[in-house]
Amino acid sequence: DSGVTQTPKHLITATGQRVTLRCSPRSGDLSVYWYQQSLDQGLQFLIQYYNGEERAKGNILERFSAQQFPDLHSELNLSSLELGDSALYFCASSLTSGRGDEQFFGPGTRLTVL
Amino acid sequence: GQNIDQPTEMTATEGAIVQINCTYQTSGFNGLFWYQQHAGEAPTFLSYNVLDGLEEKGRFSSFLSRSKGYSYLLLKELQMKDSASYLCAPKGRYSTLTFGKGTMLLVSP
């Protein structure tokens, strides 16, 4: 158990819908990262927040957005869902955004878009 | 941009030693991580190298050569539970990790 929690564990929805994935980082961690993992693409970095502020952006679509709240939990919002958005979405956290900080991954949310 | 190259699959037998290579090209370098991921599960941290050389951690060791853009993960005394995907991830600016597609290791009896 990494100490990072994600809800829900599974999500099944239809194309065109909007969903929200939630992540609670390890106690004391200030940085939260979101990743998407699909079978053919591997783990793709989406976005990073540090202490409430957006820190870095990766391959995140405009239909996706995220935020980190004052209590440091984070939410990833996915809208106008397409079949290709079906994937495992991982959240990770680290103490800071320093060089040696390892990232601890949550168990993931499996999203299925039908 | 960043490019990471790892073998797609490797096989080995229980008790053996296996070396998983990774070459990378990255803009901005703040070290390299290796993670292990079992199918459908979260990646778990194995090792971190920021300076050239070998870091040993029990049955796992990781090597880095920054000038060559090269790293390897060495697994000794292989066990069946080591069957998993191994992800090489150089760290760029702002601590963002770029993951390779991973090397699927299959350990057979």
Question: What is the average per-residue confidence, as pLDDT of chain A, rounded to a whole number?
Answer: 93
What's the total number of strands of chain A?
Answer: 11
Flag low-confidence runs of chain B: none
Terminal residue distance of chain B: 40 Å
Q: What class, by secondary structure content of chain A? A: mainly beta
- Helix count from the secondary structure assignment of chain B: 0
| Biggest sheet layout of chain A | 7 strands, mixed
Query: Tally of extended strands of chain B?
Result: 10
Rg of chain A (C-alpha, Å): 13 Å
Counting H and I runs of at least 4 residues, what is the number of helices of chain A?
0
Order of helices and strands of chain B: EEEEEEEEEE
Query: Which band does the percent of strand residues of chain B land in?
Result: over 45%
Task: From the structure above, extract its key features.
heterodimer, A: 114 residues, mainly beta, seven-stranded mixed sheet, four-stranded antiparallel sheet, B: 109 residues, five-stranded antiparallel sheet, five-stranded mixed sheet, 10 strands, 0% helix
Tell me what you see in this structure.
The complex is a heterodimer of chains A (114) and B (109). With 114 residues, chain A is an all-beta fold. In chain A, 0% of the residues lie in helices and 53% in strands. In chain A, the strands form 2 sheets. In chain A, strands 2, 4, 5, 6, 9, 10 and 11 form a 7-stranded mixed beta sheet that branches. In chain A, strand 7 (64-68) and strand 8 (74-78) form a beta hairpin. The radius of gyration of chain A is 13 Å and the shape is globular. In chain A, 38% of the residues are buried. The model of chain A has no long low-confidence stretch (mean pLDDT 93). Chain B contains no helices and 10 strands. Chain B has strands at residues 3-5, 9-13, 18-25, 32-37, 44-49, 53-57, 60-65, 70-75, 84-90, 103-108. In chain B, the strands form 2 sheets. In chain B, strands 1-3-8-7-6 form a 5-stranded antiparallel beta sheet, with no helix packed on it. Chain B has a 5-stranded mixed beta sheet with strand order 2-10-9-4-5, with no helix packed on it. Chains A and B meet through strand 4, strand 5, strand 9 and strand 10 of A and strand 5 of B.
